[in-house]
Amino acid sequence: MDLDKLLYLQGVGNGFTDCNGVYHETPTSEREYLLRTMCYEQLAQVSAADYPQWVASRIDELDAQPWTKLLRPLQWADVEHPVVTFQVPAQFSGKLTLTLSAEQQAPIVLTFDVQAAHVSGDYFTRGQSYLERKLSLAPLLAAIDEASPSMGYHQLNLAYADDASSAEQGVLLLAPAQVYGADLARIAPQKRPWGVSLQVFSLWNAAANDAIPTAFGDFAALADTIKILAAQGADFLLLNPLHALPLHEPEAASPYSPYDRRRLHCLYISPSLSAEGQNPLWHELLPKRMPKADKGDWWVDYTQAAHYKAAELKAMFKVFDSYPADHPRRLAFTEFLDVEGAALQHYAIQQAAEAKTPWLKNSEFYCYLQFVAEEQLAQCQQLASDSGMAIGLIRDLAVGAVGSGVEVSQETEQFCTRASIGAPPDPFAPQGQNWGLTPLDPIGLKQHNFQHFIEMLRCNMRHCGALRIDHFMGLFRLWWWPIAESGQPQPAGAYIYYPFELMMAILRLESHRAACMVIGEDLGIVPPEIKAPMTDAGIYSNELFYFCSDGYRYPQYAGFKAPHDYKSHALMMLANHDVPTMAAWWQGQDLLKRHELNLLSQQELQQAQIEREQQRQGVLHWLKDMAGWAESDTTLDAILPAWAKTVASGNSQLYSIALADLLAEVDAINIPGTSSEYPNWRRRYSVPVSQFAAKNLFVDVLTAVRSVRNTHN
């Protein structure tokens, strides 16, 4: 029984190097448990006695059988050097006929001698040797005065020239060498783009009575924010994931635990931006007793907010439902349904089935909400472009989806529903991290020609200038935790590896099709195998000031690097949603909060406070040497403009600062390692959107940043 070979074919890793550079070998027993997790349904009918035979059969399915086929279902090549890869018996020396049906072009038939394709591999199975050959298309096409196909997905039909019945079909993906926007000078030739990161749900504007509203931030508040930041010279807004969350569970608030990454969260819809909400009939159809909108506070009550928004959305749908069949809005909606197809219908049907209120059990209602949400997000991106932003919105793609959601239930064969994504044990989390997200299955992806991955990218590259991919390492490998059986302890996890090269080719192609830049969040343990491919593909890395340190070279600055040492092809962030706000960090409030939440013992708190003071002094020394800082006032209001400006002056081509820091917020939007202990993803900003520009710190910091970013270095 060649178990090691099957574990390799399934992508089950045999070990990893931790954050301290220590290698940990994964025992075979733990790897085999992951194998059984991945193949749970197949193995359910296999006895212990038949297990060795199953292993052999699975190896044959994954490794040997593809060699007996003329074409693999999906292959990729560089668009500048298009080649078709195929397999034939080693003794075959005749001709083959290839029909190439390039996108939006008439089919081209090419008959060629097999010797025209060079040998690139070999395999022996079932008493037969097979050769893998690569056929360069350019010479053959040039010989018949045909141009090489452009980037895209092209249909292939290959057969032995004397046997048409031997024909097999496949897809040739021709990908560009780099993602869209890799050459930033073409997008922003006169400056180095900068922007602001924010949580859309945290935005708000004062109600008529100047109270904090019940509903959380929506696309109207985002549009107002775009106008304000565009006036300040910003080039982009980096948003939290906008993925659909379960509407029947409004307290499931984390944007990184999505119900379906292909859909938008309906509660971001603003009636004021929709044709239906602007219709006088909408006001008449609102319930006579609307949920109160004047009892909000700094923390979003999602149940109350969802109840309030649902009443508005219901009235919008009633207006829409009153339109005749030939109304322009009806026609546009029908076209939207045709484009979105079965995936949208599945989402709507499942969301309707899970609704707890009878009037919400209408699947067309959820289709309509997606129609409006997509429309409003498009309006926001168009507004950003019209306002002069070089990039506009940057969307965020979560690393996985919750197992109970539509995305997983619709595409079960492309997910492993008996495992969860997380991270291995380390000094900061001795038990490891379990994020409660269902991973894509690498074998399932291959067997379905990566259709879900492609669809997910397309949906998230809409209506934006760039896409940030959270935990970019997940395209290469993900840590899986098998879901424990009831009453049993948590089984050990391991890294599962993915078809990285093919997924990167898809990413590069889809990026160009959507005219969407790509930022790969590569913080944490980054496998060395992905660094060069990211750079070569023009994908922007992600730097964070807190972690951009080198204690050996810069001990006098508590390790904080000089700005000229920042990565060039990267997005430098002063802070993000997983670290303390600048105000909390500078004042040490984050340490006190972690102690209050029992995340730090008293002894750990004291040690952390000593280290934090050393870091503060390092920052002050850093500011003195890097920016000529010589002020005696060391409050955050005094130093943040110089701090933000100095980081912004660094080597990174993209730069962002968090809106929370521009407003001197102390409360974190999210504290990693907590769930019910802290109200994550619920904090409103302390200032309404309309008053952002009235804050001295907001204006001072952005003025300082603009002074060093709006001239091309």
TrEMBL record:
Pfam families the record matches: Glyco_hydro_77
Protein name: 4-alpha-glucanotransferase
Signal sequence region: none
Family of the protein in this entry: Belongs to the disproportionating enzyme family.
EC annotation from Swiss-Prot or TrEMBL: 2.4.1.25
Cross-referenced Gene3D superfamilies: Glycosidases
Top-level taxon of the source organism: Bacteria
PANTHER family: 4-ALPHA-GLUCANOTRANSFERASE DPE1, CHLOROPLASTIC/AMYLOPLASTIC, 4-ALPHA-GLUCANOTRANSFERASE DPE1, CHLOROPLASTIC_AMYLOPLASTIC
Record GO terms (molecular function): 4-alpha-glucanotransferase activity
Catalytic activity: Transfers a segment of a (1->4)-alpha-D-glucan to a new position in an acceptor, which may be glucose or a (1->4)-alpha-D-glucan
Keywords: Carbohydrate metabolism, Glycosyltransferase, Transferase
